[in-house]
Amino acid sequence: MTVSWLDLPASEVDEAARLLLGWQLSANGVTVRLTEVEAYSGLGEDPASHAHRGMTARNEVMFGPAGMLYVYQIYGMHFCANIVCGEEGRAAAVLLRAGSVVSGLDLARSRRRASRRDSDLAAGPAKLMQVLALDRTANGTSVIDGTGPLTVSPPLATDFSVSAGPRVGVTSAHDVPWRFWISDDPSVSAYRRHTPRKVS
DNA sequence: ACAGTGATACAT
DNA sequence: TGTATCACTGTC
């Protein structure tokens, strides 16, 4: 399988993110078409990146080779996944933000009882992980060699148009339009401004 | 607009 | 050790 985004340098992680749109993600009986992503550049370059301040126990997978899954837990209850991109050691990654379910719909619905519409089943980074039934045990697994729980396959069509805007929920680097989504797709997660911090 | 939830990172 | 923060979601 030729993987266009896999061999791009970390300096082009935004292009890798764009190229990932439309790819299909399969895990645990459900397949989704990726409709929304965010790029995070690596060590010392991107204040919004988990790798910005260097390697920790949490983010060490980001410093490994491209094609690995970096899974982290947030707010004590949700999991989000990135695909590591760029050269080893650079810690660039693409956050998988949303998708539309293309197979395993019944399974997806049973895993996301709160979802009112099918377009909301994977309309967010943690929702995506829920429909694919992935958690921290997927951290550090490969998405390209078939050894991990998540596998990827190329887009069926590439005639969609792509929109770009600021990343969701990040306070810093609002100027970089590194969130990409398939234009007009109903499964794209609702944009929420970063929750204003309580002042004293 | 806010609560739920607990791991993580960093300061002490 | 303590504590502030958090690349979120559901319900209000």
UniProtKB/TrEMBL annotation:
Pfam families: Pur_DNA_glyco. The keyword Ribonucleoprotein does not apply. GO terms for biological process: base-excision repair. GO terms for molecular function: alkylbase DNA N-glycosylase activity; DNA binding. Its EC number is 3.2.2.-. Belongs to the DNA glycosylase MPG family. This is Putative 3-methyladenine DNA glycosylase.
